[in-house]
Amino acid sequence: MIQKQIAFSILVFVIFLLTATTSKAQNSSLRIQTTLHGFSGLFTTEDNRQIFFEFRLQSPKSFSSRIETLAGQLLAETVLNNDVVTVTLKDVNLPVYLDPTRRKQRPPLSMEDRQRLRDYQQSDQFVPVRQLITELILREQISRQQLKGFVAISMILGDRSGPPNSSQAKRVCPMPNATQALAFGGPTKEAKAVGAKNHQKATVDQCYGCCGFACWGCGGCFTGACAAHDQCVTNHQNHFHPECMSLLDDAIASMILECGLLPS
Predict the structure, then answer these.
(1) Which site from 123, 126, 218, 252 is most exposed, i.e. has the minimal number of CB atoms within 10 Å?
(2) How many of the other CB atoms lie within 10 Å of CB of 61?
(3) Rounded CA gap, 140 and 121, in Å?
(4) Do 222 and 211 contact (CB within 8 A), yes or no?
């Protein structure tokens, strides 16, 4: 009888350890520290990987948003320097000019670079980046202005894996009616036309035209250029289609210029 009780106690203890270990593996953690010029922190993924992140505002028109491993390997970075936003993902650099004339003059992304971005999106290295950006967007103490560099990264890579926890997706900025859906105010007539044509869809899923990846990655910024990009991805079912990649410049620029990142 005593041996059975001891065996049962050991079994209960083993189950407790397994449960505790599983629970620990299922919970990611985010530590944020406010700094003089922004914030920084450490993100631990559900499988116990750790990455460092930082937002730093150097001047009214200059900032950097950086994600790297603890060993210093760059995973993703957005740098705004006056009128140029440069997003670096692995070994691919994407300059986005805020001036529309210069933006149109930039040559399209090469097939090789598009493939590198696709490979990165589907790689294991992108998983913690995607999880981190989602967690940052959901943190209400981080201002929308401070999120834009991270949102730009998500706009380029996109995401197909679905929200990590739909019950946590609270920070989506919904459009309550067709009037607001029509008021995208994009930089081009084409973008406005796309927003107007698809206003019914916008009121259904509440995140059509939001700059970011899907509803759970919505940074709360709606523009006509982001609506045009959303429609392109819907049409082609391919985030890295050449047409959609060409629309990303306008989408990222619209997020920076129209959503309160730069001081007026």
Answers:
(1) 123
(2) 14
(3) 26
(4) yes
Q: Tell me the CA distances in angstroms from 130 to 24, 39, 125, one per residue in order.
A: 20, 18, 9
Name the band, by pLDDT with cuts 50, 70 and 90, for residue 3.
low
Q: Which of 136, 133, 185, 193 is nearest to 161 (CA)?
A: 133
Rg of the chain on CA atoms, in Å: 21
pTM, whole model, 2 decimals? 0.74
Which residue type sits at 59?
S
Distance of alpha carbon 254 from alpha carbon 261, whole angstroms? 10
Sign of the torsion angle spanned by Cα atoms 176, 181, 185, 191: positive
Concatenated DSSP letters of the chain: -HHHHHHHHHHHHHHHHHHHHHHHHH--EEEEEEETTEEEEEEE-TTS-EEEEEEEEEETTEEEEEEEETT--EEEEEEEETTEEEEEETTEEEEEESSHHHHHHSPPPPHHHHHHHHHHHTSTTHHHHHHHHHHHHH-TTS-HHHHHHHHHHHHHH---S--S-GGG--------SHHHHHTT--SSHHHHHHHHHTHHHHHHHS-TTEEEETTTEEEEEE-HHHHHHHHHHHHHT-TT-HHHHHHHHHHHHHHHHHTT-S--
In this predicted model, what pLDDT tens digit does every residue of 91-127 receive, in sequence order? 899 999 999 999 988 888 899 998 999 899 888 888 8
* CB of 133 closer than 8 Å to CB of 154: yes
Check if the beta carbon of residue 46 is closer than 8 Å to that of residue 131: yes
| Residue position matching structure tokens 């679905």 | 162
Give residue for tokens 């629309």.
247
